């Protein structure tokens, strides 16, 4: 926070969620994603003159050698061809430059304003969303590896990093006050559902989750938008420095 760094590269930037957090600490930011739709969405929301969004892949970073201070990959590295990405990251990072990769698993759900034992209801709700997250892995062996990487908090990814100076931070949490409508949207946006969606009706998983949650929280008569809860995400973070 004391001194701005020159150049941040966000790989797999999606709609720019992480860029918005990191951008104030850099003079220049390049954010890439292979999805033209995501780039379009991110550009339309962009609030920073020094941020550029463009289509690009982790395996072929659109940067000069030794030009980047920090690379971030938020909830995205598990989709990359990681060996190619690590080689590219090593090529573009300056000496002392930093590679930061982070992700999160299913959040904890804490009901707000409902009668009953909050701890118990929270345990049940958190288990239900955890099961919804696991669904893709059970169904499709292709995404199972991706799920395992996330489920194990990127342990494998941490071990793959060759830089000697590296560390893991697992204590970051972020709480959001959401309704059941938002949580249903979260389940529908999990990228591992894409393969499932191609062959089946993805809304069923989220519908099933909504039904089970309302039954166990005793609020079947309420609209989804009226069922309020605190949604707590726990982030696991890997920080590695190029020598
Ligand atoms: C869950 S989104 C993460 C969005 C954002 N970084 C964040 O922090 O929330 C994962 C993103 O990874 C992108 N992605 C998948 N494969 C990629 C690749 N090979 N190179 C770069 N990005 C990739 C997807 O298009 C998607 O937008």
TrEMBL record:
<protein>
    <recommendedName>
        <fullName>Methyltransferase type 11 domain-containing protein</fullName>
    </recommendedName>
</protein>
<dbReference type="Pfam" id="PF08241">
    <property type="entry name" value="Methyltransf_11"/>
</dbReference>
<comment type="similarity">
    <text>Belongs to the methyltransferase superfamily.</text>
</comment>
<feature type="domain" description="Methyltransferase type 11">
    <location>
        <begin position="9"/>
        <end position="101"/>
    </location>
</feature>
<dbReference type="GO" id="GO:0008757">
    <property type="term" value="F:S-adenosylmethionine-dependent methyltransferase activity"/>
</dbReference>
<dbReference type="GO" id="GO:0032259">
    <property type="term" value="P:methylation"/>
</dbReference>
<keyword id="KW-0489">Methyltransferase</keyword>
<dbReference type="InterPro" id="IPR029063">
    <property type="entry name" value="SAM-dependent_MTases_sf"/>
</dbReference>
<dbReference type="InterPro" id="IPR013216">
    <property type="entry name" value="Methyltransf_11"/>
</dbReference>
<dbReference type="InterPro" id="IPR051052">
    <property type="entry name" value="Diverse_substrate_MTase"/>
</dbReference>
<keyword id="KW-0808">Transferase</keyword>
